[in-house]
Design brief:
This protein is an alpha/beta fold. The chain is built from eleven helices and eleven strands.
């Protein structure tokens, strides 16, 4: 099973945002040593809990500190950018790190109204994602009126997809990255994507990458503790409207939290894959049977960085056993 990592540059209580970006680069170096296939970074704007607002800039640093692992975006949100600028940025990355760059694109808008206003986007605007995707590719394949520089072999383009995104990706003949409810559904959405897929020269077959939180530890309780800061931050964001930095597990008192917050934490933990190597292996095998993915993109995060590196090592060792 091909295994990759998505790192969202999570900030942590007591540490600067710069430390979060440095940690992302160090994790990419470690992921390459461990043998992960690709390492992706994210785009979030005005979010206290995430330091990465510019994937292309961060990837330039990641690429400079690594030599073989694929690097990419999970993803660039096209509604926030002109397609030509995105094409230029990733052509530049491909020229610097040939054969290693992926461009994952999504259609999400800013999380809050002030962020959407700052990005010059809005929920009332028409959905131009499909047209933007076509325009983006026209710069890469040379059919646009403007010549893209630097001239490169086009990097692979992936669509971060929900229901409508799957339809767009199938029509465009592009691979998809899926997560959330799609992974626990009856599988009809992915079946529909594969059935409707229009082959292209670049992508003759549909390709599905599943993305989810995966935490491996020596005991179930330890894995739960490691996953707790992310679940807690998610629950807090639902309560306050602001996604916060990760809190050390010792500072999280679920018993003192409101009942609704506890419910949200438990729901978040239940949606993740976590536990001992045997437990995670069993959960992943069920996921693979249900979704038939070509690749798994793990978006694991926890407060302690050394522990996170250890979890990454255990996960790739587990994935190798699955492939056998």
């Amino acid at each position: 099973m091909i295994l990759s990592l998505l790192d969202r540059s999570r900030t942590r209580d007591g540490y600067s945002d710069g430390a979060a970006l440095t940690a992302t680069i160090e994790r990419a170096i470690n992921a390459e040593k461990l043998g992960y296939h690709r390492f992706w970074v994210a785009e979030h704007h005005g979010v206290p809990g995430i330091a990465s607002g510019s994937p292309a800039v961060l990837l330039a640093s990641v690429g400079a500190r690594t030599s073989s692992i694929r690097i990419g975006s999970g993803g660039v949100m096209l509604p926030n950018h002109q397609p030509f600028v995105v094409a230029e940025q990733f052509a530049m990355l491909e020229a610097l790190y040939p054969g290693r760059v992926d461009l994952g694109v999504g259609r999400s808008l800013g999380f809050t109204e002030p962020v959407r206003a700052a990005l010059r986007t809005g929920r009332d605007e028409s959905d131009t994602f499909a047209a933007d995707l076509d325009e983006l590719w026209s710069y890469f394949d040379g059919t646009a009126a403007v010549t893209l520089r630097p001239a490169v072999v086009p990097p692979p383009v992936y669509v971060l997809a929900t229901g409508q995104g799957l339809t767009v990706a199938a029509a465009a003949g592009l691979p998809v990255v899926v997560g959330g409810p799609i992974l626990t559904s009856d599988g009809s959405a992915l079946e529909d994507y594969r059935r409707r897929y229009r082959p292209t020269i670049q992508n003759p077959h549909p390709r599905v990458v599943v993305s989810l939180d995966i935490t491996v530890a020596e005991t179930t309780e330890r894995a739960r503790t490691l996953a707790l800061p992310e679940a807690w931050a998610m629950a807090q964001s639902r309560r306050t409207g602001e996604f916060p930095p990760l809190t050390h597990p010792s500072q999280i008192d679920l018993n003192a939290a409101p009942a609704r917050t506890r419910e949200r934490v438990e729901r978040s933990l239940a949606s993740a894959v976590l536990g001992t190597p045997d437990e995670v292996s069993d959960q992943l095998e069920k996921l693979i049977d249900r979704t038939d993915p070509d690749e798994i993109l793990a978006s694991t995060s926890t407060y302690d960085r050394k522990t996170l590196f250890d979890a990454d090592a255990q996960l790739i060792q587990l994935a190798r056993s699955l492939s056998r």
